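User: Fold this, then the next.

Assistant: Folding the first:
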Amino acid sequence: MPILDTTVAVYDDVAAAETDWSALEEAAQSGTCTIADAALVENQGGEVVILQRQSHHGWGKGAVVGAVVGVLFPPSLIGAAAVGAGGGALVARFTRSLGRGKVKDLGEILDSGTMAIIVVSPTESTNVVSNTLKLPKTTATVPSASSEEIQEVMRG
């Protein structure tokens, strides 16, 4: 049962975040790493907005990172489309998997910048993902859940 890790990389510089996002896209397209889901998010006037998603390289279909965003930010701070279809069950699954302490830690890391890249990937791809994201001011990775658990929730 592959375990998924959630990596959060935080940026103050838009250009740095976009450079790392492009590098992550390239790594996923080349097969260097496996990604279930990923997103580039920005704090726009107090609301968290997903600017880009990388779900076309994975099976997450945008819902997995949407669930992570739903766990880490209060609902009042999330853009309407962030959590996505079936998000409620995934938010509950990630809340249980991450635990209160990890959610608090990741939330504080996200609060330290204006942009972030959130990547959900199998543990065996975590090092490649972390090494691909070269320009963040802060990065954290935590185990999230098993891929089977998440896919089961997504099937409904």
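Now the next one, as you asked:
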Amino acid sequence: MNLKEKPYREQPLIFIDIETTGLSLERHEIIEIASLQVSQTDFSIQKEFSSKVAPSHIETAEKEALELVEYTEKKWEHASSLKNAITEFSKMAQNGIPVGHVIHFDLMFLQKAFGLCNLPFLLDYHYLDTVSIAYAKLKDDALFDVSLTALLKRFNIHRDRAHEAQEDIRATYELFKCLFVL
């Protein structure tokens, strides 16, 4: 059965995190992508993907964004081209339901990247955002804060380094499981 033919509840969840050279969709670009394909039935990880992406226009990058991700030419010397990274990501993510922390940001950049690579954007149009889930579950809490760092601290979820796509996506996955059982 094609994934597109599967009922919504049987489609895989695709946890996504990207790192970019800034916040502007027009001026900035993806420099790192990480994702986990997760079964909806038991939340088990089925596949994992992570790639640094070689920037095409590093000159437009925000200094603060590069500092957050600890970008150096040396660390990115073996980075994939955007087309190769998006092609590999697409293989595991197609027709899955995107999940992330502030997922709309990631999806905007991904849709742009798919377009630049002349590839169809095959993720499901439904998505789940841990910010919205946290808001719904924790809104009456006096210490309410939906930042990823605050939520990870609240649920005692360890993350070695913020703004590293693979670390952030694993932490978001753990957060999602904690929020789901509240």
